[in-house]
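Run folding on both entries below.
>entry_1
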Amino acid sequence: MKTCKKTSKSCTEFYQRNHLKKIFDDSLDSLEEECGIFGIYSPHNIDTFSLAQFGMFALQHRGQEAAGVSVLKDSVIKTYKSTGLVLDVFKQIEEIEDFQGNAAIGHTRYTTAGGGSSKNIQPLYAVNYFGKPHFSIAHNGNVIETDQLKEELIKEGLPFLATSDTEVILRSIQKYSDLTVQEAIQKGLKEIRGAYSVLLLTKNSLAAFRDPNGIRPLSIGKIGDDTYVFSSETCALDAVGAEFLRDVEPGEIVVADENGLHSYSLEQASKNRICAFEYIYFARPDSTIQGTDIYDLRVQSGRKLFEQSPVEADVVIGVPDSGVPSAIGFSEASGIPFEPILVKNRYMSRSFIVPSQEMRERIVNLKLNPIANKIKGKRLVILDDSIVRGTTSKLLVKILKEAGAKEIHFRSASPPIIAPCFLGIDMPTKKDLISANMTPEELVNYLGVDSLDFLSVPNLIEILGSTNHCFGCFTEKYPVERTTQKDEFYQKKIEY
């Protein structure tokens, strides 16, 4: 059997992993978040094992491919990581006592750059001259155009063991590891561009920092008098009983150590350009991002959609889970009753092998199944968080028609997605984004609906309350510009 040049895996295995992943992704037509990060620091030993587990579990929605944790105990960093869901990974840890210390960082992963190799599972760590872990890093986001910097670091003798963009951050900081942690971060990040919210665990501190645009979220909480918690979302602070303090600011470095919390600057020009899609889709509805309650914002999006496109109908339904709040908002604004009549199977995975188109279509029935007697003869308004490739939306419309729907009016709680994201979201290339390739009229015909509308960008800005966000996937204007070919990143993204 032939083997692939870049790996020892057989070509058959290489094909299956890529092909079956694409089949499943195309069938479910979803976007995937980049990662979730969670960290905790205390000047004394605490139950870091349980707290890291609880916090990472609360962030499981941000990545389901792999998870890992690094714990600081007696000035020694120990790491465990593996493929699988958070609880599956923690079950594999046999010596729980080794993962009880005074600080920890954790990571839930969905591949965005560097491929699915186990070497890319985070946290990644750097070792000192004695071969002991010197510090460990967990990263949410994606940094860009790192090839030249990586070559320079290799020439300076810094080892690269993985293929992810996170390791470029790691080695860039490692280059200055003889300095204080904040100085090493300041100097190491000078040439790094893109989106990054990062936790860095050292032998005596935990540092948290965001890129100068603040594209990915990162919040700070506190337990008691001297234990600090850092998380991609506030829902994980709630999970460990932490009081929310504030967000890490764009371009800020926050260091927790035995003397408390300290703030420094990356010493780069900063502005707030957090990803708008965090609010629309990725964040859990019980989270708050930069003072905005996610649930309330999604309800407002549904109200705005009714203002944009009023329609007469019998029932409003939402695609679970993130489409439900906007459906509730649409119902409140229109007076049309909301019914939770799409049932979601919460145990979907990528493990189905589905060689035929007919069977691929049935996957949607496995994920979402309507209560038919609530639909037959009814005029429906269906709210979803977004339309990406359009495949799931089209199949869902087909299912609703087969259940007897009289009319179907489709509303998207996000603007049309017309451009790919290179700042930390796993998104198709532009040729696969249906709104980038069809007119509204063509989309109506393709989906087979009676009407269709998307939340407008001006209305999204209004409910967000500011233009200080990244709207790149809706406008093709990004806070960080690339100099390379726009689709090059996606051509290289998945390597096995």
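>entry_2
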Amino acid sequence: MAIVLDLRRPKDVVRPAGGIAYGAVTPDRTVSRAAYSDRMVRFIAFAPLLASSLIAFVQVTNVTGSPGRVATVVALACCMMAANLHHLWALAHAERPRAAGWTLAVVFVAYAVGMPLAGVTWPLMGVHLLVSVVIVLRRPWSLLIGSGLGIAILVVVQVFYPGTNPLWTTVVILDRSGACLALAWLSAALRQLLAAREELAVQAVLRERIRIDAELAETVGTALGTIAGRGAAISRLAGQDPALAAEQLHALVDGSRQTLAETRRMIRTYQRGSLGAELDTAVALLGAAGIQARLVLPDGGLIEGADDAFAAELRAVVDRLLHDGSVRSCRLRVVHAAGGLQLLVDADGSGQVESA
């Protein structure tokens, strides 16, 4: 009596066209790249701080009076800007500022105390108070209070300095506050976009692992359950009909060996895909990391079946490109050579060549 174990993949399991997860990329490594994936994003986080500091510097340099008065105004501006820069830095990193209420109070008190001391230039320092209010307070209060504060600054300038053009004052308030907030919001949006992209990559790896687990459970797991059930039946039969039990035991051994062979074959399909799938996955990973990759294949096409040495070198090259951090585009060109296939890599037009 022969025992046939069915190890075919279930029909409801769909294998994605892109192949299985790429070997060198793991969720841990992907997460570790989230904070250092783009130098420009890190630079943009400093842009709103620089803009706010320059605006404050221009205002403070226009303060006139005795040295003691100027020193007091500079000290107040430093206190005000320290808290304001703290708020902008948190917003640029898509975070809520720590001790937000206290630091907002510092900005408000410094602005109020400096009003009678600094003169005509100080009311426009309220732009930094407006920015901090918009960052710290939650909507809709931030919009309502921020709008009211902007109108109040305009009124103060017109009441105490009636010669000032109100249109010019309005444009200055909107321009300066918008410059700081827009740069900080841009930095936060880019960081959230990068985090979402990295999360998608992690989820893709996890989904593939879940798919493989489900496939193995439906195939190998079912086969092993059959073996266990047949073994238990044979053990009960051994006391009643030893000859029949021995015959079925031999059949079970043959079926188990077949199961082992099929399992090994299935595992090899996970570990080793086609060369085309390897190249497609490499291009997809580079694209997910923000690297514009172009794949050029030889005229004669690719040889079916992955070349282990070529695939290993391809993974190594892609791993280096992913962790370089400075590469923005590359061209992967596969050519036929005397010893097999050769991989030529041109990163950012540098002409750097990697061979496989």
